[in-house]
Amino acid sequence: MGEGKSIYWSRFVKDLSPYRPGEQPGKENVIKLNTNESPFGPSPSVLRAVQAVLNDDLRLYPTPNGNPLREKISNYYGLSERQVFLGNGSDEVLAHAFNCFFRKDKPILFPEITYSFYSVFCKLYGIKNKKISLTQNLKINLEDYYIANGGIIFPNPNAPTGTLLSLDNIRCLLEFNTESVVIIDEAYIDFGGVSALPLLKNYKNMLIIHTLSKSRALAGMRIGYALGSDELIDGLYRVKNSFNSYPTSRLQIAAAIASFKDEDYFQDSIKKIKKGRDALSKGLQVLGFAVTPSFGNFLLVAHADHGAFSIWKRLRQDGILVRHFDQYPISNHLRISVGNEVQNRALLEALREICGTDTN
Question: In the chain, what are the domains?
Fold first, then answer.
C-alpha cells in the first residue's frame, strides 16, 4: 500500500500508523520463517471438511455467532457456550476487545516489547496506554503492572521474545487487579506452558484469546476466539454485532470443528515443532547466537559479531525470510520461526556461510 496522503482522507486516517505484517513473498522457492506459521499443513480431516461444504449452501449466510463452532470449543475446554466468542482471526477478536473494554479514562498497560498490533489498536480507538519495560533478560515482570490502569493485556508466551509467565504470577496479578479487564493473548500457549484457562472460574475480569493460525496450521482460514465470563463475552458480541453480523464463514466453521476433532494430529504437530525448536536452538548456539529461551514456535536470537540487519539482508538474498524489528532493545535480534527439518537445516547452512563459523 502507498504511504502518501490523499485529500479525500479524514484527519483520523492521516494520523493512523497501521500494523506492518511480515513479508508475504510473491514468488516460490522461498523459505518463509518470518510469520510464525506452522511448517506443517492442517489435518487432512480439515481439508475433507472444507471440501464437504463447497456446495450450493454457500449462497446462504452462516450462523451469525458461529454456534456449531462455539459449541465445539466450549465442549473442548469444558465451558458453557456463552463463554466463547468467535472472530475472523484473533486480530479481529483483539480489536473488538480493545473497543469493548479499554476505552476508559485511565491508560491501559502492556509490555514495551510485544505484539505491535496493541499500539495500533490504541491509536485507532484513541486509547491511552502505558508501555511497561521488560527485564534485562527480556521477560515480563507482572509486579510492574500493580498500578492504577484502564486494563491490562500481554501475550503468554510473549511475542517476539517467547518468554513465559507462570499461572501463579498471573493469579497474583488478578488478585490485585480487580477493577479492570486483564486480557491474556495465548496465541502461542500450545507450544509451551500452561493456559490460564483454570483461572476463569474465579476471575470474571479475565479474557483469554486464542488463534487457530499457529498450532492448528489454519492461518489462511482466519479463525480466532475468546474465552471468558458471560459478562465479558456478552460485551464482545454487542461490539461485534454493531460491526459485522457474519465474521466466520461456513468454510471457517467447518475447518475449525474438524481441527478440534483431530486431537492426535494436533498433538503430533506440536510435538514435532517443539523438537524442531530445540534442535534449531542448539544449532544456532553452535554458530555463536545467543538464543532467548522460547515457549513459542519461534526463537529470538542475536549474534555477538554480526549485526541482525545485515544477517537479515543476507538471508533474504538467499531466499530465506526471517523477521527483524528495528526497536530497542531488540534491534540487534532476529525472530526466526521454527520450520520443518529441511527448512531449519537450510537456514543453519546459510547462517554458517554468513557468520563464517566452522563447526567441523
Answer: 23-41+264-355 (3.90.1150.10), 44-261 (3.40.640.10)
